[in-house]
Amino acid sequence: MYPLKFKPILKSTIWGGEKIIPFKHLDCQQAQVGESWEISDVPGDESVVADGADAGKNLTQMVSEYKGALVGESNYKRFNGKFPLLIKFIDAQQDLSIQVHPDDELAMKRHNSMGKTEMWYVIGNDGGKAHLRSGLSQQITPDQYAAMIADNTICDALSDYAVQPGDVFFLPAGRIHSIGAGCFIAEIQQTSNITYRIYDFNRKDKNGNTRELHTELSKDAIDYTVSEDYRTHYTPKQNEPVELVSCPYFTTSVYDLTEKMSMDYTELDSFVIYICMEGACTVTDNEGNTVSLQAGESVLFPATTKTLDVVPEGHVKFLETYV
To answer: 242-322 has which fold?
Structure first.
């Protein structure tokens, strides 16, 4: 097997901006692209391999064909032959709705789906104007929560953060959250498209309709625990891995490289994904396959990969994630 790049799935949204297409160096016209689904096995939105011998196959077909060789033997069994992660770039020109995602147990019971635990890495903050919301700032009950939705005060109960490039937020299923205007984000999440929309600022679409809210469904999905700080704190370093998140669904590190680095995945029974935010590099695997990677691109290395040599073109910054 060889390193896999996929054709991006661009999603225009009511809140989307105009940054994703130039960031990804794409030659296309599409307005208000709020999301680029980089690697997806969500039914109906399966990523398609861009080049090489498997070009044209979608990720569902790839997992079916290559099984543990692609995703790892334990992952293939654990996730019943489904690819477990969804990778996105998100460009918010306006605030996204306040929302929450159910955990595995609730999502399986209600939707026959995995839940959604996710993380955000802030790439851009629109010159310092961006903010986001993560977690409750005060203790409320489910009934108080529903009342605050009804009287448009729910934002008063949420922690609101001004964000800088490099900020990281881990969002376990059940944590109420919203990406705010000006955020440009890399998102890593479980393969799930189950979202409960809590509050949408009474916005209307071009036809004058408001979007559906899921107040009752979300009431049982929210984790009402209050924490002092929902930001993930880490110390940036150059030319060595810095772990950001380690949870049952993914482990993610950031690399900020100015010199060659060799990665050893011999003991890892998983695929590895690189998501590039800045600069460019070339990556060569133990079989001699070489792939270029630049800002705006993501690449999937199959579980058969033993080692990778990463050579920056001056400087490169990317996220590494695996299960």
So the answer is: Jelly Rolls (2.60.120)
